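Exercise: predict the structure of this protein bound to L45E5XJ5.
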Amino acid sequence: MSEKPLIIGVAGGSGSGKTTVVSNIIQSIGENRVLLLQHDSYYRDLSHLPFEERTKQNFDHPSALETELMIRHLDALRNGYKIDIPVYDFVKHTRSEKTITALPHRIILVDGILIFSEPELRKLMDIKLFVDTDGDVRLLRRLQRDINERGRDLSGVLNQYEKFVRPMHLEFVEPSKRYADIIIPRGGENLVALEMVIALIEGKLSS
Ligand SMILES: Nc1ncnc2c1ncn2[C@@H]1O[C@H](COP(=O)(O)OP(=O)(O)O)[C@@H](O)[C@H]1O
Ligand SMILES: Nc1ccn([C@@H]2O[C@H](COP(=O)(O)O)[C@@H](O)[C@H]2O)c(=O)n1
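Solution:
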């Protein structure tokens, strides 16, 4: 592929609806034209720690993620090379032996809570979207998701939220909103904003 891809970043707090927004964009633009790269896939492996220790880590600080690898991957894709995306296990807090091979695409969607707080990563993005959802709504969604899908219990989710998620959100995620080109209030339910974003992407692709 000789043309450089269009790289679209989708940031926002945990549970804000990033994945929902991204899925809507992919459905509208067409799966075969888009590659999704999630910062979540680049969480550092903690298999060297006992399980109890892993659960006590701060996963909301930039140092918890191997952002340098994600940047190398984006550079490789921009230059026409394939990459091997890590597979992360949120139940065990570990990275799998397996990877997923991804080929260069015309559009690359990048999502994650901290993608705009990393200058090197931010620099690579052509369009930056921030999904803005109230903290109480995000906490309720996260409670449900983490208990149903990530092997957590009520008190674990609440402790983690109070100790790490909320303070790191205020320190890193919320201030990074200033770098967004478009702020999407309420996330995936905001169909007007989604239509505008999709029209913008289509316009960029045809220009
Ligand atoms: N508008 C919405 N209404 C109800 N539930 C939603 C809505 N948007 C997202 N969710 C649910 O909330 C949870 C978190 O949403 P998700 O899109 O995964 O957020 P993020 O990727 O920002 O963490 C998911 O279980 C999702 O199904
Ligand atoms: N082992 C891990 C790794 C990350 N988290 C939490 O995931 C959140 C980011 O993912 P979203 O899909 O919600 O954007 C982040 O807030 C971390 O606290 C975790 O709980 N365990």
